Fold this sequence. Notes:
Elements: E1 2-9, H1 15-20, E2 29-34, E3 40-46, E4 59-60, E5 70-78, H2 81-90, H3 101-112, E6 122-130, E7 135-140, E8 149-153, E9 156-160, H4 178-187, E10 200-202, E11 207-212, E12 218-222, H5 239-256, E13 264-267, H6 272-282, E14 291-297, H7 305-315, E15 318-324, H8 326-336, H9 349-359, E16 365-368, H10 372-375, H11 380-394, H12 397-407, H13 419-429, H14 437-442, H15 450-453, H16 460-463, H17 465-473, H18 479-506, E17 510-513, H19 518-525, E18 533-534, E19 537-538, H20 540-546, H21 552-555, H22 566-572, H23 588-599, H24 606-616, H25 619-626
Parallel strand pairs: 13-14, 13-16, 14-15, 16-17
Antiparallel strand pairs: 1-3, 1-9, 2-3, 4-5, 5-6, 6-7, 7-11, 8-9, 8-10, 11-12, 18-19
Amino acid sequence: MCGIAGVWRQGAEAVPAMLDSMIHRGPDGEGVWRNAAGDVVLGHRRLSILDHEGGAQPFAAADDPDGGGYVLVYNGELYNHPELREELERRGHVFRSSHSDTETVLRAYMEWGENAPARFNGMFAFAVWDKARRRLFLARDRFGEKPLFWAAHKDGFAFASEAQALFHWPLFSGRLHAANVQRYLAWGYCTADRTIFEGVHSLPAGSCLTLDLATGRKDIRRYWRFSLEPDDNLRDADEPRLVEELRDLLVRAVRRRLASDVPLGLFLSGGVDSGAVLAAMSRLLPAERIHAFSVGFTEKSFDESAYAAAAARHFGVRHHTRLLNLDAARERVRLTLPRVGDPLGDASLLPTALLAEFTRETVTVALSGDGGDELFAGYDPFKALAPAMWYSRCMPRPLHQLLRRCMTFVPTSDANMSLDFKIRRFLRGLSYSRPLWLPVWMSPAEPAEMADLFETPLPPEELYADQLATWERNRHLSLPEQAQAFFVEHYLSGDILVKTDRASMLSSLESRAVFLDNDIADFCRRLPFRFKIRKGVSKYILKKALAGWLPEEIVNRPKKGFGIPLNLWLRALPAPPVPAQDCPWMLPGGIRRRVEAQRRRRGDHRLCLWAWTALADSAFFRREQAR
């Protein structure tokens, strides 16, 4: 993994500072390249994983002073680069590196231009200087594992792997985007191309951007999108064949992700997804070469470390565990939140950061089970859809509102996924139209709360415009399939992958998501939904594939999720600061009232308060307060 940055026209002198702010993404080396005219500067910080000698960047196609017309800065891993390299060699390309995927990315662009990213199986964010066409070309991987932010001004253009790197660009406005802060609190993360900063955008997953340097025109297009196209020809009788196909895909995906010139291991939660990765890994490597890493909690209802230990014992691998308690959480808040850059309202960032930190003490690369819940329908809300349909048809609205009011008198439990928490979430989502059930169920602050938090609250259709667009694009699908589209397009790309990337890169650790392999994703796209959930069993086909691979108590145990004891911790952690002069469009009393209610157990505002804490402790917010 690496950190990349670049500037066109004004502010090119800021690139070294941009790179310095991302040294954790690439502690092994730094490079800066300027074109002959001096109006394009590309920079790179390197975490060396493959071809230590041949993969240095910025990478030029030739050795003449202006780089042969093509220069690349690249962050990621291309798992199918050996196959692409062979094809490119057949087409006449002569490689000078021994096995660097960096050169494969550049030569693929030279051969196929803007169509190259669609051929890649991997995680990546890269930029190419194309001298002949006088343009910059930027692209991001299919699901958005690797970040890429950009900002445009009439006098220039800049991009970087982290939003906070753009703070060093002199044309950055330095202001929060008021409407996007509302959206952030409504989602818990930033969706699509949005960030909380004015003028700063995230390149959406599966997208590319072409900047014409002659005109300054930007063209953004989507080259790939996860779209469900279930194969109606598949019957229940095909199940044995599908099980074997999925097993084979898992092993192949893991094998691709074992390519490394440095030590590697895996994150092990004790659940089905990471267990699947361990099972496939154990078929490819001897047990003594596999290191598994887990995080546990002193609060028992959140702790899954016993299941992780059982899986590790089953395969005889080396297992490493750390516990996260309240004191460690306080320290983790101090160490993590100011360094994340763009804030993330997912509190499981804390244990993920701890996991990455102690994993990095032993290995440089860790495989993960990210994506399994989204692709195989593993989340609890999938099971809530049928009751929600019944409830929405039968429950009179006045009685629904009465039930919501009654729940305000029910004490808030500190236990993981407690019944009162589930009921509150269920009822709040069903206060809105069907397309908004999922985002409101998951939201830190529902639309009705915005009037208490913001001077000019956005209506639900603006807060959740991205979800409404996804719903409309998939209106031909069933409700469970619509839910899967939401989880893949928004929650996976905006929350899960952001969390893993930021947490791992803070410790200079590369994380590789096995389930996001192109072939597994295509398998899931064409799989009818009855193979994902059947008779109340989630991840049905995946669990069938793992039968005999994993202990039965792991395959069939209820899902807990990677939660943390947030209610308990919020009452002990310092109260988040109230909005000040940097947020004149916020009502400070809204946060203050939620802090007080949370501490007195008179409401459940844990997600809202944590999302606000993540923003208030971010580097940007602290910088603004110091002005």
